[in-house]
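Below is a concrete protein record.
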Amino acid sequence: MADHALLSPSSSARWISCPPSARLCESIEEETSSFAQEGTDAHALCEYKLNKALGNEAVDPRPELEFYNEEMESCADEYALYVMQIYHQMKNDGADPLIAIEAKLDISSYVPECSGTGDCIIVSDGKLHIIDFKYGRGVLVEADHNTQMMLYALGALGMFSSLYEIEDIAMTIFQPRLSNISTFEMKREDLENWANQVLKEKAQLAFEGGGEFCSGSHCRFCKVRSTCRERANANLSLARYEFAKPPLLDDTEISAILIQAEELASWVADLRGYAFSVLIGGGHIDGFKLVEGRSARTYTDEEAVAKAVKEAGFDPYEHKVLGITAMMALLGKSRFNELLTPFVFKPRGKPTMAPSSDKRPEMIIGKQDFMEETT
């Protein structure tokens, strides 16, 4: 569900790290996209599936979903199954858990005018488990100290702490299209200490438009990421890098440059996107202009083309098996696995460089292995 408050949980990573960005972005309209509507549709289907699994009455939203397909159906089934597994596990542990679906959470005791919606909250004496469904496939979302989830946890504590003695908190990101189920656990005491010692101060600064601008990974979803001067200064510092006197860079220098270059490339892409929007809107950017890009030839009437080629004695059609992604979309995930698992092979990936923070295990290979992989 979209969150448009000044200090929303979904944008908390940004306004906690860069408090003045909240007011700076306040007057800029939200960007709408088909991806956002696709996510809204997927959440509606997840809500329905989970209610049905619990035996609750629910209206089937599928006839009204703009982006409904077999993949969305499969992801919603996986989500409902996962939630029910957590629910039954808590029952097996001797608890009598309560499930709240799409719960409205008040977080204003820590963050001014802040509220949110928890996709699924499971609570019992001793334990609070919050599960957030993410349908996006572009960016992998981790639960570890995820501020959006921590704000949801604070809201859930406010809702249920008078009914349950909660000590342990689990926060799970369920992101099926990236095969990502990420869970982070912390003690209630630690969460409340963070809220009182860090969150409240940052939230008040952000609400008042105070604090210092700070560039970082949180800039990715900032509305002013393309024109922010602080981000520009941080990235332009690469051009002012104080190189050592020897003619060759050492490995430490190369590491520092590569780390910053990742953000630099993202910043340049944002700048190009902004400049293009100015030009396409009739504006002017010194040194740049709009030109006609390359285009590919297309048929005006494919049926007429096919008929003409057939009459000439040729076969106008390609004949090949659908790719794995297209075949899974055709059959559905479960049917695909049932029919084709014996025929699917995933070769070892070629070595690629990634940041040390990447969750994939490090490849340990010798020089000869590398030569064989890349030749």
